[in-house]
Amino acid sequence: MSFIDNRKKQSERLTADEEKVLARKIRVAEDKSRDAIDGVDVAMAIVSRRPDRAERTRAGAVDRLEEAVEAVWKASKDRADLKPRARAAKGAWAEAEALRWQLAMSGRRIAHGEARKLAGPFMDEEDLVQEGYIGLLRAAKRFDPDRDIRFSTYARWWVRAQMTRAIDHTGRPVRLPGCAVEQTRNLRKAIKRFEAAGVEYGLADLADEVGIDKERAELLLSQGSTISLEQPVDDGPRPRSLERFLSDEDAVRPDGDAINSQELHRMHDAFDMVLSERHRFVLTRRYGLKDGEFRTLSEVGKEMGLSRERVRQIEREALIRLREQSQIREAM
Hints:
- The protein is mainly α.
- The protein has 4 domains: 3-104, no CATH class; 107-173, Up-down Bundle (Four Helix Bundle (Hemerythrin (Met), subunit A)), CATH 1.20.120.1810; 176-223, Orthogonal Bundle (Arc Repressor Mutant, subunit A), CATH 1.10.10; 262-331, Winged helix-like DNA-binding domain superfamily/Winged helix DNA-binding domain (Arc Repressor Mutant, subunit A, Orthogonal Bundle).
- It has helices spanning 3-10, 16-36, 41-47, 59-75, 83-105, 108-118, 125-142, 151-171, 178-197, 203-210, 214-222, 254-274, 277-286, 297-304, 308-324, 327-331.
- It is flat.
């Protein structure tokens, strides 16, 4: 079987029984890895570590097992007696990871379906699909085959949670809690339902539809709205608009112009101290020190009746002399 055919088979939809069989194979591979490192001090210290809070899923135990396998693998580099056990644990863990990937990708249609629902101005569909794959892998790590639930049903919540978290963290200019993201989405869905039915509605109607108070609905709907440059941004007898606070990068800055003029004057004085007239002419024309216009070597050469290469040599001589003369630093 080719690699492409194998990956295609891995991503096919599984029946409920196939999901349970695959999940139990993952358990068997994890048990093999655990048995291989059983009794190793560095591994036992990690596996038996008491979690900070009560574990409601098996993900915490799986994470500790993975950490223990890596610790034994690292320790085996200095202890020859651990190498066979480390290789066995690593191989069993790789098998569990491959099976976990197969289980996760069997539900990738869920990621595509949820991405189509949640795609919008904050994140596009392609990015949400990738986040959905992360949610599927998290679900595969936590899935318990002994519970009477389909993996596809269980994974849908994790996919949606991962997507809404991504929208909250990276998609919005202002970060919102996950519950606020969900409530905002429900508010906008309620707006669409009212408009599709041709029913007049107010903020109170939207809040009742979603199950939140009116003030919170108003706050959530205001997030991400467009702000006018003419909108007042401060209080007082003479409120100023946002436009007044935005700087114009192209506007003339008197202080900057004065500093530039002063520095250019000092630079010309320093040039007179260490450079010949020909050197000063080349640098001044090349770098636009008087009129602000840069010129090519050919253009300067035409003005001086010299070749392009000769102008380049003169420019190089002038720059070397400036670096070598200490007077230029004292003058500037």
